[in-house]
């Protein structure tokens, strides 16, 4: 049994590892790669996986649930509210218009109107997983089409709930409910009580998200065990999904709501980066399962019918979307991106088809047909996207449109990221904020983060050295990363990670002392800030003043010494570039200290500076001659 | 008795002979407020509100400084730029300094003779100080004839002491003497 599971894992993972990079190489996006992998290993390909493909698909549907949690998490209520017009307007229009046209066609080809309507609602859904993934891969999320896509997909994901609630009204008999309503203990309750229970569960998810989950996550964060935090994140999502399923609601909607509630919390980025790999893996599995479940036998038995249905659905959805884009006055390239991107039938169709088949609204044969159409459309969609990208878009525009930045996203991506917000980083942060600079703060002390948030800072909890956390903090768009972490090893890791993954970032690094600075200087990092340098020189300046030196002279002397010291550091860094492990070497440190003091002897600010000194003038003009009298004096 | 605000401006007092000698003779009496600008603002970050409230409390303002390159040391210019605000000292509603008197009290290395149409510098001291006069006129203040200790490069210690006494006497005149005779019209 165990070896069976291991073999299955080997097959799935190997197929993915083989097909996805191949698909990427041909610029086809990972989704098509997963689908191809599924077809390859499925019962109609090599036949390495069989019936369990269906159960794996059910398991992998959890990927969709995690994805919607992340969608909610990325979408702060504020942003959601700002998008409400787009979501309601374009979303409603897309679902209703598509469903209306498809229903009409269905009735025209002789379907019962209820069946036609139910099926067309399922077919109106687009694939959030597929569309968002490919928009992200192409960097189009912030384009007009990207935002419209996001809005429509969001509406669809939400609309699944009322659809699931209303479709039973169409059913002739209230038979067993579909996949997602199956076995709800609430079924026994009277309808009004069930409604109350449903509302209570939603309210409790919202309330718990606000008042219970965040404090609990703080407690977990305090243990500083990363795996415990990941476990808590998973528990949160699985728990909400389970609760929702209990009351017969969509787990996806529940987790979306939970995500939305938590999007304002300090754990947002940490949750995002912890769950991202699970989402990616599960979605990949989901697409493989979709590929494997395509019934080529059914397709072979009625190739024309399925081909015409699939193409018909793609065409109708594409045209409706293009018309919507045209109504919204989008540029033509954006319209093409929108209509090719969302023309496929989405993963919720699997859920809805199972549901309406269960209700008896459509017969099992039509159900199987709809599943085949859905899977085929998901396979064709990336190809369409590729074709439009290679053949259509370049012709529409000589220079492909630059993605327009949405105004409400600007504050979201702050241009300075501060990693580490103890006394050092917080001073930098307060100063920048006082100057109106937007800052994003990353700190691994949850109590500190909580405090900062109460003070109105945009602070997030997490380990800043992780690429994914930096990514979610907007490192790809930020201009400057301030490394203000007090631990030299962590700073080193952070600098290496940031240099490798975000070459766009200018790194400004807090270092403990000059020995650390030498290392960074050798690597070409020039903006280094020694923790104690300015303070100790300031102290020296104040000592001079206490001893009676005029303030301005002491001040200039301090500044001069600062410049001298920075120069010396750079010279000595080159000098000691080839020695290793000198920090531990006490003798080396003493030798450096000596060289430093030697070089100080050459720097005598009070002697090397003749400004405002009248002694040289007096000597130079010892014998006054009327024609050479100086202008100074 | 008029209140006198002495704004002293020397970037390197430890290298100064003439100004140091003058300061030694400064009357230490309640009517004279002494402010060493370079000591107060070594980083040029002038406290504008503080300076303005001091201006309001005094009747006569003295800018004491050596003449460098026919002008004052940079901090005095900074002080003028920052403290004499638009709408406060000049411009619409800017009449807070109206009626006060201002005088440049300076030292020059060159002799008085050098600062004449025939002399080495071709112009008189008053001509070189014209920007200061315009500034005070624009701020509705009366500009007094500058007081200068000249030829400091070749001044003996005894000469310095003598100049110190004159300096003290001049400050006292500002406090209780006849200012109208000192006013300089453009």
Walk me through this protein's architecture.
The complex is a heterodimer of chains A (633) and B (186). Chain A is mostly helical and 633 residues long. Chain A folds into two domains: 56-391, Up-down Bundle (Na+/H+ antiporter like fold), CATH 1.20.1530.20; 413-608, Rossmann fold (3-Layer(aba) Sandwich), CATH 3.40.50.720. Helices cover 69% and strands 4% of the residues of chain A. Chain A has 27 helices and six strands. Chain A has a six-stranded parallel sheet, sandwiched between helices. In chain A, helix 3 (52-74) runs antiparallel to helix 12, helix 8 runs parallel beside helix 16 (347-359) and helix 16 (347-359) packs antiparallel against helix 17 (364-396). The longest helix of chain A has 33 residues, at 191-223. Chain A is elongated and about 115 Å long. Chain A starts with a helix and ends in a 13-residue tail after the last helix. The model of chain B has no long low-confidence stretch (mean pLDDT 95). Chain B has a single domain (4-180), classed as Flavodoxin domain (Rossmann fold, 3-Layer(aba) Sandwich). The two termini of chain B are 27 Å apart. In chain B, helix 4 (74-83) links the parallel strand 3 (60-66) and strand 4 (101-108). In chain B, strands 1, 2, 3, 4, 5 and 6 form a six-stranded parallel sheet that branches. Chain B is of the alpha/beta class and 186 residues long. In chain B, helix 1 (18-24) crosses helix 7. Chains A and B meet through helix 24 and helix 27 of A and helix 2 of B.
């Amino acid at each position: 049994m165990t070896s069976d599971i291991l073999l299955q894992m080997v097959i799935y993972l190997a197929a993915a590892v083989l097909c996805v990079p191949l698909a990427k190489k041909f610029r086809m996006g990972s989704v098509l790669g997963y689908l191809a992998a599924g077809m390859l290993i499925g019962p109609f390909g090599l036949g390495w996986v069989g019936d369990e493909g269906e159960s794996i698909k059910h398991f992998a549907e959890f990927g969709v649930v995690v994805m919607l949690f992340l969608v909610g998490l990325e979408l702060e209520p504020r942003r959601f509210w700002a998008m409400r017009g787009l979501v309601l307007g374009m979303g409603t229009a897309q679902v209703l218009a598509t469903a209306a046209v498809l229903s009409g066609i269905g009735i025209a080809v002789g379907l019962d109107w209820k069946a036609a309507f139910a099926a067309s609602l399922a077919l109106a859904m687009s694939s959030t997983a597929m569309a968002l993934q490919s928009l992200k891969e192409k960097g189009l999320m912030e384009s007009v089409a990207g935002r419209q896509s996001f809005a429509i997909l969001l509406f669809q994901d939400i609309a699944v709930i009322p659809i699931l609630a209303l479709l039973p009204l169409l059913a002739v008999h209230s038979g067993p409910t579909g996949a997602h309503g199956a076995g709800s203990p609430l079924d026994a309750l009277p309808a009004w009580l069930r409604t109350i229970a449903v509302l209570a569960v939603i309210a409790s998810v919202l309330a718990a998200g606000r008042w219970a989950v965040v404090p609990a996550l703080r407690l977990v964060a305090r243990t500083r065990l990363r795996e415990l935090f990941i476990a808590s994140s998973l528990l949160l999502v699985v728990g909400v999904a389970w609760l929702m399923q209990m009351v017969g609601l969509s787990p996806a909607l529940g987790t979306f709501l939970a995500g939305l509630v938590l999007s304002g919390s300090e754990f947002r980025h940490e949750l995002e980066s912890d769950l991202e790999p699970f989402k990616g893996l599960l979605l990949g599995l989901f697409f493989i399962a979709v590929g494997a479940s395509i019934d080529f036998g059914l397709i072979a038995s009625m190739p024309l019918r399925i081909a015409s249905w699939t193409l018909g659905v793609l065409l109708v959805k594409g045209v409706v979307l293009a018309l919507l884009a045209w109504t919204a006055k989008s540029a033509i390239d954006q319209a093409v991106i929108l209509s090719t991107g969302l023309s496929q039938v989405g993963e919720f169709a699997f859920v809805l088809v199972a549901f309406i088949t269960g209700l008896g609204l459509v017969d099992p044969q039509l159900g199987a047909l709809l599943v085949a159409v859905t899977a085929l459309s998901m396979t064709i969609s990336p190809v369409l996207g590729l074709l439009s990208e290679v053949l259509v878009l370049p012709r529409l525009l000589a220079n492909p449109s630059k993605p327009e930045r949405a105004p409400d996203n600007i504050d979201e991506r702050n241009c300075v990221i501060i990693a580490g917000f103890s006394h050092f980083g917080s001073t930098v942060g307060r100063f920048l904020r006082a100057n109106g600079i937007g800052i994003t703060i990353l700190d691994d002390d949850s109590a500190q983060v909580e405090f900062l948030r109460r003070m109105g800072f945009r602070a997030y909890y997490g380990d800043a050295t992780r690429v994914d956390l930096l990514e979610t903090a907007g490192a790809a768009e930020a201009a400057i990363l301030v490394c203000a972490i007090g631990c030299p090893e962590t700073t080193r890791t952070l600098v290496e990670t940031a240099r490798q993954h975000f070459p766009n970032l200018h790194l400004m690094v807090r270092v403990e002392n000059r020995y650390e600075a030498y290392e960074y200087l050798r690597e070409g990092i020039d903006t280094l800030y020694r923790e104690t340098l300015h303070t100790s020189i300031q102290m020296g300046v104040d000592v001079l003043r206490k001893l009676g030196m005029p303030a301005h002279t002491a001040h200039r002397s301090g500044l001069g010494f600062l410049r001298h010291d920075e120069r010396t550091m750079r010279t000595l860094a080159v000098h000691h570039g080839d020695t290793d492990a000198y920090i531990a070497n006490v003798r080396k440190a003493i030798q450096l200290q000596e060289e430093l003091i030697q070089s100080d002897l050459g720097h005598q600010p009070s002697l090397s500076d003749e400004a405002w000194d009248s002694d040289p003038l007096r000597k130079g003009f010892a014998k006054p001659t009327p024609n050479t009298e100086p202008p100074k004096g | 008795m008029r209140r006198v605000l002495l704004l002293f401006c020397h970037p390197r007092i430890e290298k100064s002979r003439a100004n140091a000698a003058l300061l030694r003779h400064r009357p230490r009496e309640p009517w004279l407020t002494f402010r060493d600008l370079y000591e107060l603002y070594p980083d040029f970050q002038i406290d504008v509100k503080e300076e303005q409230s001091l201006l309001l409390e005094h009747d006569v303002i003295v800018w004491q400084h050596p003449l460098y390159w026919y002008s004052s040391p940079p901090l005095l210019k900074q002080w003028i730029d920052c403290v004499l605000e638009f709408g406060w000292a000049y411009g619409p509603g800017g009449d807070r300094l109206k009626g006060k008197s201002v005088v440049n009290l300076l030292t020059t290395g060159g002799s008085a003779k050098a600062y004449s149409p025939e002399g080495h510098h071709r112009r008189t001291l008053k001509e070189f100080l014209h920007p200061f006069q315009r500034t005070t006129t624009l701020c509705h203040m009366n500009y007094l004839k500058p007081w200068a200790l000249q030829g400091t490069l070749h001044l003996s210690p005894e000469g310095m002491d003598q100049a110190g006494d004159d300096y003290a006497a001049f400050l006292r005149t500002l406090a209780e003497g006849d200012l109208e005779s000192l006013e300089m019209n453009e």
